[in-house]
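User: Here's a chain of 361 residues. Predict its fold as tokens.
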Amino acid sequence: MKKVFRKELMDLIPYKPGKPIADVQREYGLDKVYKLASNENPLGCSPKVKNAIINALDNINLYPDGNATLLKEKLSSITGFPTSQILPSSGLDEMIDQIAKTFINDGEEAIMSDHSFVRYIGTTKMMGGVPVIVPMKDGFVFDLDEMLKRINENTKLIWICNPNNPTGTMLSEDQVASFFSKVPEDIIIVYDEAYREFATHKDFPHDSLKFLRKYPNIIIMRTFSKVYGLAALRVGYTIASEEIIENLNKIRPAFNVNSLAQVAALAAIEDKDFVEKTIHNNNIGKEYLYKEFDKMNLNYALSQTNHIWVDVEKDAQEVFVNLQKKGVIIRPQVGNFIRVSIGLAEENEYFIKCLREELGK
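Assistant: Prediction complete.
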């Protein structure tokens, strides 16, 4: 059967999401399990979202608005860009694939950083593209200078995640501005801002839209999965030039954002108090984890997201398995590094208790 599949699939590995709570409960016979693996919102979602979904249940027999008209109009009012430059998607995973399908031809190169979102690699290979993976600098930050050096006549696209997943590190406004100005205008820059709301550093480029106004080769991606807590509904959106959006629309599934996701996103936007509570909880949890890691003399990357990249000085996969047995799910990374999502106080405290036991600290 292997010969019937596209050659690009031969060395691809299916994306492995964070392990579900129910699986761990069944496997180890646990009543209580804390999931700190997938950077989900520990506060859930806004009550306004739940009410909006309930009110929309009578219409689930109808196809959704394939244009996502009301959502696009709302996003237009917030961003200042016309609806013709905005495209909602079924989470950013779908948009990452759509971008690759739109731009990458067989043999063309896509530049990305090591230790960034792994889907960039898979979707590039899926289209027969060549991932050009640039090592990070000390501190687990992108080496933008080296990325620029890797640009050649085969370069089609550059993936930038800021703040970055999984390291949680950021690029400053000056770094981003300088980088954008040096990338040739015929190379697409995909700027993934899934975690932008959690960034508190004064030098973070909070207003990335001004770069799009200056450079039409930039694609900005945002999501409702993280700070808004709508991960299960799969809804995000992209802002780009009219020409780019028009071509992305050519391959977009007709009803890619379901009706419940659309009404939930609209309601989530309106609840600014919930967003503030989420960010406040994240900041408190982050400082607590920093202090506990310091007490254990563990090295970690300063995070501008809702997760922390930390060296646990022990094989990450082993730590991952042993913490599950205690009822904590984290995400193993390379070598001794894990990524832990910032949860509620009781979740963070229990994670630290279990980690201390595991490491003997």
